[in-house]
Amino acid sequence: MMDEPTGAEMLGTVARYLRETLLPKLPPEAVFHTRVAANAVDLVRRQLELGAGLETEELARLRALLGREGSLDELNRARPRRSRRANSASGPADEHLWVTTLAKMAVDQPASYRRELELRQGEARDRREKSPERQGPHADLQRQDPKRQSPQSICGLFACHT
Q1: What angle do CA 55, 57, 62 make, to 5 degrees?
Q2: How many CB atoms lie within 10 A of CB 130?
Q3: pLDDT tens across 95-125, in order?
Q4: Which of 39, 58, 84, 131 is the most buried (most CB within 10 A)?
C-alpha cells in the first residue's frame, strides 16, 4: 500500500508543473496543447479523488428510488426515463438526476459546478425565506444570523429521498 503522496496528489503536482513552470517557457504554438494536457491531468485527478464516493452515493440514491438491489449499471438501466414534457421537473427521480448531474460536473467542469451550486443555494435560501414557518416575530433575526442556517449539501438542495 502506498502512503504519500497519493496518485491524485502526484497528478496535481504534474498539472501545476505544466501550468506554472513549463507553460511560460513554451513557444506560442505549444501553449494550447500544454493547457489541454494540464486540464486532462486535473480531470483525472478529480476522478481519482471524487469518483468512487460519487458512485457510491449515486448507487444509494438509485437503490432508494427503485427499492431494489443491483449494480450501478443495472439500476441506471432500470431507472424510469423522464418524460419528454417540458418543465416536468418534480419528484425523487428528477431530484436524483439533478444531484447526479451536479456530481459529474464537480469532476468534469468544476467552475460550472461551483456556479450552479451557488445558484441552487441562493434559490434554496429564497425558498426558506418565503416559507410560512419563517414568518413570525423572529423571522428577520433568523435571516440576519448566518449561524442559524446550517450548510446545505448537494442532496439537501434538492430534498433528496434517500
Answers
A1: 90
A2: 9
A3: 888 899 999 999 999 999 999 988 888 888 8
A4: 58
Query: Can you tell me which residue has the cell 493547457?
Result: 35
Q: In whole angstroms, what is the distance from residue 44 CA to residue 51 CA? A: 10
Output the CA torsion 132→138→144→150 (10° steps): -60
Residue 23 has which C-alpha cell?
Answer: 507553460
User: Rounded to the nearest 10 degrees, how much is the dihedral formed by the CA atoms of 118, 138, 140, 160?
Assistant: 20
Q: Which three cell numbers, joined as nine digits, stand for 20?
A: 506554472
Scan for cell 464537480, then name that residue: 106
Kindly report the CA angle at 76 between 71 and 82, in degrees rounded to 5?
Answer: 160
Q: pLDDT tens digits, residue range 117-141?
A: 888 888 888 888 887 655 544 344 3
